[in-house]
UniProtKB/TrEMBL annotation:
Belongs to the class-III pyridoxal-phosphate-dependent aminotransferase family. CDD domains: OAT_like (cd00610). Its EC number is 2.6.1.18, 2.6.1.40, 2.6.1.44. The lineage of its organism: Eukaryota, Metazoa, Ecdysozoa, Arthropoda, Hexapoda. Its cofactor is pyridoxal 5'-phosphate. SUPFAM superfamilies: PLP-dependent transferases. Multifunctional aminotransferase with a broad substrate specificity. Catalyzes the conversion of glyoxylate to glycine using alanine as the amino donor. Catalyzes metabolism of not L- but the D-isomer of D-beta-aminoisobutyric acid to generate 2-methyl-3-oxopropanoate and alanine. Catalyzes the transfer of the amino group from beta-alanine to pyruvate to yield L-alanine and 3-oxopropanoate. Can metabolize NG-monomethyl-L-arginine (NMMA), asymmetric NG,NG-dimethyl-L-arginine (ADMA) and symmetric NG,N'G-dimethyl-L-arginine (SDMA). It comes from the Eukaryota. GO terms for biological process: glyoxylate catabolic process; L-alanine catabolic process, by transamination. Gene3D superfamilies: Aspartate Aminotransferase, domain 1, Type I PLP-dependent aspartate aminotransferase-like (Major domain). This is Alanine--glyoxylate aminotransferase 2, mitochondrial. It comes from Bemisia tabaci (Sweetpotato whitefly).
């Protein structure tokens, strides 16, 4: 039973003593009490299917018994020390984690959050290349620290501070909303009808977006030189936006030709999330120079990492760089057990199997409802974009969106919300969900969308 502060008291403290940033609360904000695998329970004992996994962070399940046991066992021995001393957990985990990466991506630096990992990656890129300029894509989210905020290109997550020296945003290869289509060229099990002459090897939209990237190099970068490119393998906060096939590979070539390194932000897409691959970048058939990872790496525990090549890491050789909590024994014990669970329970395969089934079922909703503009994603990284109607693609207004989103919660399904226009349902659950969980979510969405469909169309 719930024994915490009562609900009204919490609302009072929230309004009086918490920094009032806008969080997208439900009409009646949820008060969570405990969690178990894909389930969350509120203070009144109501059960919810967690289809957002603490923002794509719960990889193997809330309070997964093996991960919890590993944390408890380590807590009894040692929580924290400093990297001035050595602790075996860091080395054992470093070896296991880096063995999951391809090519020369062999050395790791542990930190505690996605923003910290990207900060460090940006610094490494600048030190290694001796260039300053960085390119990211519009609609990207790479973090909130003042250093990395410049690469985040969703204006609602930016502040009018000197955040963006030397940072350039390229046109986003958004195949749903963009100028040149290319929806059929996404790497997704559900395909829309082809309207183009693209071949398996050459997507016309990808080529157009590539030309836009070239323009950034030509017009904005000092003498065309770049330190690095940041890219998510599927944009997360931006609303599960997938690049057309072939785009990223060509973008990487352009960056390298112009003196830069390629940074894959795997904060959301890593650890088997996209099903077919352990890392999201693999679906683009590229090998980055630096990979950043957070969220799912610790199944909810603050832990993140930057993995790079020995050559790039060399730039920090003999330099002082310090992070108090990075790589602490507790975080490493947890990270290690998460990797073991992913292997033992074949979590990635489940992501692929259940995710593909889920996408097929959600695609039926796209065919049934005028307001479901797009269904996209791979594995358990899924987005459902709600619109006024399919033709105009006008983002569904906040009032209607919130009704739908809130009703899903009332029926026991928690879904994320995202995109520049906050009109995208984000389905990124703990990867232990079953087909039955996916079916239940689709049933709830079908019921709720049916209830609201008439109102939306009149609107
Ligand atoms: N990169 C991506 C792709 C993210 O989604 C996020 C967080 N939403 C971050 C970086 C920043 O992570 P953190 O909030 O842990 O700093």
């Amino acid at each position: 039973p719930y024994e915490g502060l009562d609900y009204e008291k919490i609302q009072k403290i929230k309004s009086e003593r918490i920094v009032p940033c806008i969080m997208q609360y439900y009409k009646k904000p949820l008060l969570i009490h405990h969690g178990k695998m894909q389930w969350l329970f509120d203070h009144e004992g109501n059960r919810y299917l967690d289809m957002f996994g603490g923002i794509v962070t719960i990889s193997v399940g809330h309070c997964h018994p093996k991960v919890t046991a590993a944390a408890k066992a380590q807590m009894d021995k040692l929580w924290h020390t400093t990297n001035i001393y050595q602790h075996p957990n860091l080395y054992e985990y470093a070896e296991k984690l880096t063995s999951k990466l391809p090519g020369d991506l062999k050395v790791v630096y542990f930190v505690n959050s996605g923003s910290e990992a990207n900060d460090l990656a940006m610094m490494m890129a600048r030190l290694y290349t001796k260039n300053f300029d960085i390119v990211s894509f519009r609609n990207a989210y790479h973090g909130m620290s003042p250093y990395i905020m410049g690469t985040t290109a969703i204006s609602t997550w930016r502040y009018n501070l000197p955040i963006a020296q030397g940072i350039h945003h390229a046109m986003n290869p958004d195949v749903y909303r963009g100028l040149w289509g290319g929806q059929h060229c996404r790497d997704s099990p559900i395909q829309t009808q082809r309207h183009c002459n693209c071949s398996e090897f050459r997507c016309e939209a990808a080529q157009k977006y590539y030309e836009q990237l070239e323009e950034v190099f030509k017009y904005s970068l000092p003498r065309g030189q770049v330190a690095g490119l940041f890219a998510e393998s599927i944009q997360g906060v931006g609303g599960t936006v997938q690049f057309p096939k072939g785009f990223l590979k060509k973008a990487y070539e352009l960056v390298r030709t112009n003196g830069g390194v390629c940074i894959a932000d795997e904060v959301q897409t890593g650890f088997g999330r996209t099903g077919g691959h352990f890392w999201g970048f693999e679906m683009h058939k590229v090998v980055p120079d630096i990979v950043t990872m957070a969220k799912g790496i610790g199944n909810g525990f603050p832990l993140s990492a930057v993995v790079t090549t020995p050559k790039i890491a060399e730039t920090l050789n003999s330099a002082l760089h310090f992070n108090t909590f990075g790589g602490n024994p507790l975080a490493c014990a947890i990270g290690m057990s998460v990797l073991e669970v992913i292997e033992e329970e074949e979590t990635q395969a489940n992501s692929e199997k259940v995710g593909t089934h889920f996408l097929y079922e959600l695609a039926k909703l796209r065919d049934e409802f005028e307001c479901v503009g797009d269904v996209r994603g791979k594995g358990l990284m899924i987005g459902v974009e709600l619109v006024e109607d399919k033709e105009s693609k006008i983002p569904l207004g906040a009032k209607n969106f919130v009704e739908i989103w809130n009703d899903c919660k009332e029926m026991g399904v928690l879904i994320g919300r995202g995109g520049m226009n906050s009109n995208i349902l984000r389905l990124k659950p703990p990867m232990c969900i079953t087909k039955a969980d996916a079916d239940y979510t689709v049933d709830v969405l079908r019921y709720v969308l049916t209830k609201h469909a008439k109102k939306i169309q009149k609107h």
